[in-house]
Amino acid sequence: MSNDEIVEILELTTKLLELHDADTFKIRTYSSAAFNLSRLNDQELATLSTAALTQLPGVGKSMAAKIQEIVQTGRLNELEQLMAQTPVGVLEMFKIKGIGAKKIGTIWRQLGIDTIAGLQIACETGQIAKLKGFGESTQQKILASMAFLQSQMGKVRMDKAAILAELIRDELQKYFPNVVITGEVARKNETVETIQLLVGTESPVAAIRQINEIGWLLQNEKISSPFTWRGKIVDRSTTTELPPQGEEVEQKKTLEIQVEIVFVYPDKFESERFILESTEAHLSHPTALGTSLLAVAYSSSREESAEAIYQKAGLPYVVPEMREGLGEFEWLTQHKNEDLITWDALRGILHNHSTYSDGKHSLEVMARYCQELGFEYLGIADHSQTASYANGLRADRVKLQHEEIDRLNQALAANASKPFKILKGIESDILGDGSLDYPEEVLKTFDYVVASVHSNLTMSLEKATGRLLAAIENPYTTILGHPTGRLLLAREGYPIDHKVIIEACARHGVVIEINASPWRLDLDWRWIRYCMDKGVMLSINPDAHQKEGYFDMHYGVNVARKGGLTKEMTFNVLSLAEIEAYLDKRKKG
Question: Of 189, 485, 456, 128, whose CA–CA distance to 320 is shortest?
Answer without folding.
Answer: 189
